[in-house]
Write a structure and sequence with these properties.
This protein has one helix and nine strands, in the order H-E-E-E-E-E-E-E-E-E. With 128 residues, the protein is of the alpha+beta class. It has one domain: Immunoglobulins (Immunoglobulin-like, Sandwich). A hairpin with a 5-residue loop joins strand 8 and strand 9.
């Protein structure tokens, strides 16, 4: 009985280790990891792409992508990325206030860190 109990504990331990090591084999590379827009203009929409490459050995899943304001909209092309494959996020920015522009895109995925952040920076001017 004692041997069965010990075997059961070892089995649970090994399964939990296997689950964690699988998660560690999921990773992504974000290009660029920061968008520097330099000078942009009020109420002029610009579009940029953020490329995402699955550099892990298992399937990468992008659960959601969001921004911290209504002036920035992000859409995922493909949310399931096989190993060594890539996709992109299209980011549309429509600044409404002049001055320093700092926003963030948050990507929720199945990698170990769960959340990845891409910062967007620029300076908004009024059209001359």
């Amino acid at each position: 009985m004692r041997k069965i109990c010990i075997l059961g504990i070892l089995l649970v331990f090994l399964l939990s280790c296997n689950s964690e090591s699988k998660k560690e084999k999921i990773n992504m590379y974000i290009i660029p990891n920061e968008l520097n827009l330099d000078t942009i203009f009020i109420n002029k929409e610009i579009t940029r792409r953020i490329n995402i490459k699955n550099i892990g050995d298992n399937t990468l899943k992008l659960y959601s992508v969001s921004s911290d304001c209504g002036c920035t909209i992000a859409k995922i092309k493909d949310s399931i990325i096989d190993p060594k494959q890539d996709t992109f996020i299209e980011v549309k920015i429509l600044p409404e206030v002049k001055g320093r522009f700092e926003r963030s895109i948050v990507i929720k995925s199945n990698i170990k860190e769960i959340f990845s952040i891409v910062d967007i920076k620029g300076f908004v001017k009024k059209r001359e």
